[in-house]
Every structure is written in structure tokens, then in C-alpha cells.
Amino acid sequence: MSEAINTLDNKGQDGKESVGEFIRNTREELNKTTFPSSDDVKNTTIIVIVNVIFFAIYLFLIDRAWVYIIEGLTWLINKIAGI
């Protein structure tokens, strides 16, 4: 919280910072970031692909089940109505 207040105090009277300050602050923030390793990216990609395949199959089966149920109900209603 004190960092947020501190950055507000560093701005000029009109509330804007100079381009040089903006670039300096941006570089400071980029130095604080960490990027994932190649192995992390590969593992995460594999997890995403497996999940997409799983949910695609799951939703396909659920859709087929609903089609089967709706067709059965339609057949039953037609049989009762004598159509």
C-alpha cells in the first residue's frame, strides 16, 4: 500500500509523469517479473491439451445422451398422441 501512495507522491502537480520516468518505472517493473522455464511451458501446454480433449469428449457424450433422451421423449409423445 505504501508503494502505491509513494508513486502518487512522485508525480508532478498535474498528476502526469514524464516519459523518462514512465520508461524507468516500466523497466523496474519488468525487472521484478519472472518468466516460466521451457519445461514449465511444455508441461502446462500438455495439461491444457489433455483437458481440452477430455472436455470435448465429455461434452460430446452429454450431447449425444440428450439427443437420445429427447428423441425417446418425442417417440413416446407421438406414440401416446397416435401420430
Concise summary:
The chain is mainly alpha-helical and 83 residues long. It folds into 2 domains: 1-33, no CATH class; 37-83.
What's the gyration radius in Å?
29 Å
Mean of residue pLDDT values: 88
- By DSSP (H or I, 4+ residues per run), the number of helices equals 3
Outline type: elongated
Count of individual domains = 2
Please report the distance between the alpha carbons of the first and last residues. Answer: 72 Å
What class do helices, strands and sheet pairing give? mainly alpha
Largest beta-sheet details: none
Structure, explained:
The chain folds into two domains: 1-33, no CATH class; 37-83. It contains three helices and no strands. It has helices at 2-9, 19-32, 38-81. The protein is elongated, with a radius of gyration of 29 Å. The model has no long low-confidence stretch (mean pLDDT 88).
